[in-house]
Amino acid sequence: MSVDVQDLAGRPVIIGGGIAGLMTALHLAPEPVLLLSRSLLGADVSSAWAQGGLAASLGDDDDPALHLSDTLAAGDGLCDADAARRIVYAAPGPIEDLARLGVRFDRTPEGALTLGLEAAHSRRRIVHAGGDGSGREVMRGLVAAVRSTPTIAVVEDIEARRLAVEDGRVTGVLARCSTGPVFLATVRVILATGGIGGLFHDSTNPLGSCGHGLALAARAGATLADLEFIQFHPTALDGPGRPMPLISEAVRGEGATIVDETGRRFLHGVRGAELAPRDIVARAVWRHLADGHRVFLDVRKKPGATFAQQFPTIASACNKAGIDPAHDLIPIRPAQHYHMGGVAVDLAGRTSVQGLWACGEVASTGLHGANRLASNSLTEAVVCARWVAESVAASPQHRGKPAMASDLPPPDPRPVRPLLSHALGVTRDGEGLKEAARALLLLFQRHDTASDSAAVGLMIAIAALQRRESRGAHFRTDFPHHAAGARRSQITLDTAVAAARELASSPTPESVS
């Protein structure tokens, strides 16, 4: 670690080196900022794995009102309409910003942006880079820009372990680097480390994405929102590898179909078929698998011969699995992909804890509602990063309170994975959620390496248990219909623990039988 923490002089600390963190740092320039990355900058972050692109109404037949309508429809009644409107109307601007930073978006021979189609979008509005390598290309451009900005101090191989809070206000970050624990005194912290895939057996996320940002915020006393809404992507490559390779929705946007082992398109009766919202397609695939079928993606006719050229990352993953997409069906199954829930924030990224902001997947702005519209997540990150940076820059800039650095062990999500995979998958039920909550409470109370992951899992389980309906990505077999007057959920770690303790003290079905 080359940065002298005594020289921070009240600079903001950004936790996370994905698109949200890098964009926020760039927008804060020329104000000095410290950016913490758990690994080499740009590596092992969900942003770099994004195959889809950024959704923005740029086509001649499109406008922000249509984009907003599609977003609200996918969100299934739980989007914050005002937040969604502001974000989608602002979406075209950051595309131009990224291009100026050197991101090489896919373009037509005439130089216009190539626009792709993904599920539940009524127009072609997905801006891609490198075919199915959009996240990788955007990260390449942003990493280069950050490294060339002298006011951004990047510290790699460091992990934040706790936020110091006094009287409801952030006073610093307790972190661990290769030389040991360190305390970073600051009154301005931006969480930009999202993703919970490491809490599930089947996920398309890096295994290190295990709700770390949520745990930091929750232990600091922040309010979290919509945690029960977890998106499962319907087309992950079904094989032994973990994380599971993603097969982008854009493949279906180019005409690929979903079939079973008999060649039947069993989604034919579903409105929108292969291009229905992700939650609908994921449940249909899940049920077909549960009925004993195998499920495949057929790309042989569409996209056909151009598949490998259009989707080189996916073609490479298939080839490594011994599959030739030009001649073979691609086996698929749903896998955890994105978390609509997160730290409750306003559009400036402010949380309920003074001095703490959140941006990207770790935040819950209300854009996604119960089910994220494809490719809205990268758009949200780059749009909100500017607003977060403006809010941080306008806040007090004095030093944080120095404190002694104490060591804390790294989080270990492995004990939590079987619990969340079983109880919080594509479909849920009350008894399974109660059983998981009781087990997660016990893990949380051990105060060991599994405690942070258990805290995140516990909050998700309680939020899912309290939503006694099915909506978007949250489907309960014991409450399969919408409930009237449904609202966005909010929870804190304290309220989740209290609810779980009440469950633990109540009799289980076995004890009363």
Q: Describe it for me?
A:
With 513 residues, the chain is α/β, with parallel strands linked by helices. It folds into 3 domains: 5-195 and 340-393, FAD/NAD(P)-binding domain, CATH 3.50.50; 233-335, Alpha-Beta Complex (Flavocytochrome C3, Chain A, domain 1), CATH 3.90.700.10; 409-512, Methane Monooxygenase Hydroxylase, Chain G, domain 1. The chain is 33% helix and 16% strand. The strands form 5 sheets. It has a 5-stranded parallel sheet, covered by helices on one side. A 4-stranded mixed sheet has the order 18-16-11-19. It has a 4-stranded antiparallel sheet with strand order 12-15-14-13, covered by helices on one side. The mean pLDDT is 93.
Classified by CATH, the class of the largest domain is Alpha Beta
Task: Flag low-confidence runs.
Answer: none
Q: Kindly, what is the distance between the CA atoms of the first and last residues, rounded to a whole number of angstroms?
A: 59 Å
Count the DSSP helices. 17
Q: Gyration radius, to the nearest Å? A: 22 Å
- Could you tell me the number of beta strands? 19
Number of domains: 3
CATH fold naming of the largest domain? FAD/NAD(P)-binding domain
Give me the CATH architecture of the largest domain, please: 3-Layer(bba) Sandwich
Largest sheet entry: 5 strands, parallel
**CATH H-level homologous superfamily name of the largest domain:** FAD/NAD(P)-binding domain
